[in-house]
């Protein structure tokens, strides 16, 4: 490729990636702070229910992404790629900023989770229109035979957005005291997004329309009814369904297992200190991100199918062994406690009237350097233990582990392996989807299967898997922590079978 063309496409990628990265950052701030948001925006009397409600609200943003794909995809195919994803950027940034401004549940009651849900839905609609526009825009600037490589740079933005969200949270926690972060500091990452959006808008203002769309528009070959031509045409609908069930459905669950489910697992099942989790996940993401580019480039050489299907297969086979090893790495039953260093400090906290919390804080040390803080809170009224909605004693147990460097390193490796699965299925997917559909209906046709696969099948993963784990734990299953993996394993398995049977290598050059 000539230097002039290379310079031109780098400008396109920079402008597209900047906005897309910020949108993913905005979207993932919510997921990264799910544990904190559960405490701020939902009733505190049942922490598990509050956390599940937060995950459900997080998932709601994914569920509406297909509607955003239809609405903004149609606009993108009618008026152009550039202006459409400028609107989605502004919508996403505004919604994220406002989430950081909502008063807590204690201040405005049920209005708090309701407002969060509304803004979360707006985020989902915006993201539904953003990705298809960015991927299409870059692909339509890429030279023939190199779409996999160049669109893979867009694929990195999701992981980079997650990484930056983790780093902003980590920095905020470092600068502020624990009390300040808990009181108001958690809002800062939401507020920061508005500054990033402003910078991105300035960059995107100078972008030109994609040459392929501009040519089609000049020749009068754009779609008059993109929705009807995309989904009312049986031939095109066949490719939409194949893209969904044979690729994006499996890609979606692998993506969210390797990043979000892993993060929730480390924090809520393994009870590792949140700052340590953000650190190890951030390192794994940095190490794994270049492989998006590698597998995108490789897909130009060997085809998209073999890499995407290979990523799904290794994920299906290795998820349970990996998560079993993750759990056992920090399992206190497998560690030796230094009993003489164990300390327990009792305290009392008056809640209101005759309601009192009896709090027992126990600290433990282990021979391998692991330290644990256990906080047992007994909710009492009139000298008796209160009962929860199931008729059981209302007692909360919160365990926080600070793990040693060796365990940190090993967990980074195990997360890194999962990120490799992600890069295999996600690196080539943009080029794969773009090549399946003609220019005039490309934005609409590729956006829907992508966002159904990622938004519905992938986005529901944290909530569904956490529900499975919780039920298995309540039932006394000793390997309860593995039960949540059945969801991504089954979904990816179905997608793998369909993809292997029906995806044809010729799709790679169908609309180049």
Question: What is shown here, in short?
Answer:
The chain is of the alpha+beta class and 512 residues long. The chain is built from 21 helices and five strands. Strands 1, 2, 3, 4 and 5 form a five-stranded antiparallel β-sheet that branches.
CATH topology label of the largest domain: Growth Hormone, Chain: A
Q: What is the rounded distance between the termini?
A: 17 Å
State the fourth-level CATH superfamily of the largest domain.
MFS general substrate transporter like domains
Strand content: 5-15%
Helix content: 55-70%
- How many strands, what sense, and barrel or not for the largest sheet? 5 strands, antiparallel
> Tally the helices: what do you get?
21
Backbone structural class: alpha+beta
Give the overall silhouette: globular
How many domains, in number, for the residues? Answer: 2
Radius of gyration: 24 Å
Pick out the low-confidence regions: none
Mean pLDDT score = 83
Q: Helices and strands, in N-to-C order?
A: HHHHHHHHHHHHHHHHEEEEEHHHHH
Query: Tally of extended strands?
Result: 5
CATH class of the largest domain: Mainly Alpha
CATH architecture of the largest domain: Up-down Bundle
What does this 3D model show about the protein?
The chain is an alpha+beta fold. The protein folds into two domains: 3-330 and 406-509, Growth Hormone, Chain: A (Up-down Bundle); 339-402. Helices cover 70% and strands 8% of the residues. It has 21 helices and five strands. It has helices spanning 3-32, 34-41, 47-63, 65-79, 81-99, 105-108, 111-139, 147-175, 178-183, 188-204, 211-218, 226-231, 234-269, 274-288, 290-302, 304-329, 405-426, 429-436, 442-458, 461-474, 486-502, and strands at residues 343-352, 355-365, 371-381, 384-385, 395-402. Strands 1, 2, 3, 4 and 5 form a five-stranded antiparallel sheet that branches. A hairpin with a 2-residue loop joins strand 1 and strand 2. Helix 4 crosses helix 7 and helix 15 runs parallel beside helix 17. The longest helix is centred in the middle third of the chain and has 36 residues, at 234-269. The radius of gyration is 24 Å and the shape is globular. The protein starts with a helix and ends in a 10-residue tail after the last helix. It is a multi-pass membrane protein. The chain crosses the membrane at residues 21-38, 50-72, 84-105, 111-129, 150-172, 184-203, 239-259, 279-299, 306-323, 410-434, 446-465, 485-503. Keywords: Cell membrane, Membrane, Transmembrane, Transmembrane helix, Transport. It is found in: Cell membrane. This is MFS transporter.
